[in-house]
Design a protein that fits this description.
Number of helices: 13
Largest sheet: 10 strands, mixed
Structural class: alpha/beta
Shape: globular
CATH architecture of the largest domain: 3-Layer(aba) Sandwich
Strand content: 15-25%
CATH class of the largest domain: Alpha Beta
Radius of gyration: 22 Å
Oligomer: single chain
Number of strands: 20
CATH topology of the largest domain: Adenylosuccinate Synthetase, Chain A, domain 1
Distance between the termini: 9 Å
Strand order of the largest sheet: 9-7-5-2-10-1-11-15-19-20
Number of domains: 2
Helix content: 25-40%
Amino acid sequence: MPAVVIVGAQWGDEGKGKATDLLGSRVDYVVKFNGGNNAGHTVVIGEEKYALHLLPSGILSPGCIPIIGNGVVVDLAVLFEEIDGLEARGIDTSRLLISANAHVIADYNRTMDKVAERFLGSRKIGTTGRGIGPTYADKMNRIGIRIQDLFDEKILRQKVEGALELKNQILTKIYNRRAAEVDETVAELLTYVDRLRPMVADTPLVLHEALAADKTVLLEAGQATLLDVDHGTYPFVTSSSATAGGACTGSGIAPTEISGVIGIVKAYATRVGEGPFPTELFDDDGERLRQNGFEFGTTTGRPRRCGWYDAPIARYAARINGVTDFVLTKLDVLTGWDKIPVCVAYEVDGERTEEMPMTQTGFHHAKPIYEFFDGWSEDITSARTVADLPSNAQSYVKALERMSGARISAIGVGPDREETIVVHDLL
């Protein structure tokens, strides 16, 4: 049975949670393999709306085992707050497993994130201030704290002391802030140990045995391709690998086990934070997309920057991830436009290119070249087959499929779990 990866094919917020939830009843494991509580998924089931941050979307599917993989950075206070919130609404979270090798966001990581962004001023990245980047930096600098370290107080204290030797110099002498206290950090982290212990597992082994037993595993990316630390619009990116390659390193599943990659694209485009965005709109159309699509961050509430669909970006994501199927979301948001522009290429320094520019400078200077498609006015939320869509909506979907580098296998026509057209089986 397959291991299938779900990735965002734009700048995030494409609706990966809905896509994961769509498959949740048919998979045995759902693994979050990167990121932290700097991103969120919103899943709508009937009249209920669930905002997930750290927990994999599979937590909402009975019988599915949700896993937080080793590639995730975990704010334990946020984790348990999220668990408590779901349990208060009758959701069973007892199946959750967490990798012993996942890194922990300590209080000083959050502090460093916030003060560094303020210090950068106009050069800020646009982080959420939740300590994600500093925690990944600690991981690469080999001074990070892992989940397993909490079960040995002596090792935990040594690691916190080692991390704070340099950080306190920076906090006090550069940022003019109070030094972080070793005792405070250790005491806070130890408060989670008893509750955390039953959830911790050797998750790569669990997943290996599951695949060997013909179970189906869904690997769920946080963030998105254009925010990937290697393949995104660096430096305006996240600090983890949000592409299909990161699914292997962030979960412990071998590359040869991956049988498909599902890329999620909105029928338009959005971005949160700083960085280039060629199709961004600063007019009434942009505000209309924001309001119609409720484009405000699940985690931060920040208004998202909105723009038209960008086909070169979709092709880039298809190539980088090896996308086998696209899920097109929020097609209903475009209802009511007379003409819908789609970016089919860029003009960079007077020349046309149909691919993403190689350099940061080139992408900053890229001007979108648009092709215009006839819109539709009919309500499409009740459509359950492509034939149910207005002819202009069908033409729009076919055009995006032709331009984007992989087939469109599902189409979101509304926020609810049932408001989806399935064109091809995703598993």
